[in-house]
Amino acid sequence: MEQDRWSRVKSRLRSNLGEDIYSSWFARMDLESVQADSVHLTVPTKFLRSWIQTHYADRVLLCWQAEVPAIHRVDLTVRTAATRSVAPAKELAAAVDARPGLERGNGRAAPDLRQAATAPVSASHEALGGSPLDPRLTFASFVVGRSNALAQAAARQVAEGRRGDNVMFNPLYIHSGVGLGKTHLLQAVTWAGNSGHERKVLYLTAEKFMYGFVAALKSHTALAFKEALRGIDVLVIDDLQFLQGKSTQAEFCHTLNALIDAGRQVVIAADRPPSDLESLDDRVRSRLAGGLVVEMGALGEELRLGILKSRVNAARVHHAGFEVPAAVLDYLAKAITHNGRDLEGAVNRLLAHSKLNAQPVTLEMAEREVRDLIRPQEPKRIKIEDIQRVVARQYNVSRSDLLSSRRTANVVRPRQVAMYLAKTLTLRSLPEIGRRFGGRDHTTVLHAVRKIEALVAKDVSLSDEVELLKRQLQE
After folding, report:
1. CATH number of the domain at 2-111, out of 3.40.50.1820, 3.40.50.10330, 3.30.300.180, 2.60.15.10?
2. pLDDT tens for residues 140-158?
3. Of the candidates 40, 83, 74, 77, which has an alpha carbon nearest to the alpha carbon of residue 56?
């Protein structure tokens, strides 16, 4: 009798969620017992238990209530070694990673289930003094595309590490513009790392790190603060560009060195590469650059479309009748190009308009509701490395020639042109440009800029060359 009900519940889950999601998350769930008002289910791993409780608790409960209305609670536990079904590790990994780039539905769990799911990770993380975590920001809800695939793979490699493993990327440094997924990846590392209860993974914003250090100094507990941080297995720091103050930066440098030297993992995110963090000490920049530095690029149209679909699927968990036509999704993916937060905002607006006005989503409605999110195309962000590469190719010299101390005419002029372009096409300061050109003084850069400005004003041939280089860099 109970097994017949369980079979019907599984059929409902498969029908509601689709074969892919069911196979990935529910195929290895077993029925243990059915009580008067509760059901006891088991899964083979803590990861599956945490994921199902966090994202699908309400679905499981509703499917059971459709069969047995008296059921008000679903208990989910990990099978013991004696009762656990035998499954090769590779097979289990394949089930967990079946479709890593697609959003899973974020179910609104019944209070008992949701609290049971997130409490262990959240409580342990908050006990360590970590910054708040968003339960939606997991690897499963991270949509993967060409621009972020390497960053996602590296973050996942870190999250799946075990205590005592050799650290492959240290530190792992991820940088990108606003709204491209840095915080999502860092919190996903924290959720996944802590869910196994084997390692201590601490997520801190730079602001939280500064606040903690200053508070420790005021309360004369700085030593305890330092020891607590250096006892972490994986330290995750977000928005490093906001780290201010010489004493705070010095403490961060000591903590960074202590963790790396002890074989502990460090993961950092910022809005620019380490070399561009001019407010940080040279020793910190050097240590950051010594790990794996990964840039998350702009969202391509295909990736934007994938993000939109995932957000619509997530919204549909709570609002079953919410539908967005393919033509509307295509329009949004083409028109909203700035970042992922704008895409999520667009879906929220369509959902609100559809629900509050009881109207279906149409292309006309979408054009009206999201018009302020359609921003003019921003000019391409040009990097000094790009300038050096393009100038070296134009003048048939190598990039190392531009950075060298050579003073021959065939190198001096291209070097001056490259410095001039770096000053006019980027926001970098003269000292920063000099440092990026082989450690030159800022007066050398200023001389080069003034020299090229004067020549361009009277040499038509050089003026045309410079304009050609600008066009190539801005394409």
Report:
1. 3.30.300.180
2. 889 888 888 999 999 998 8
3. 74
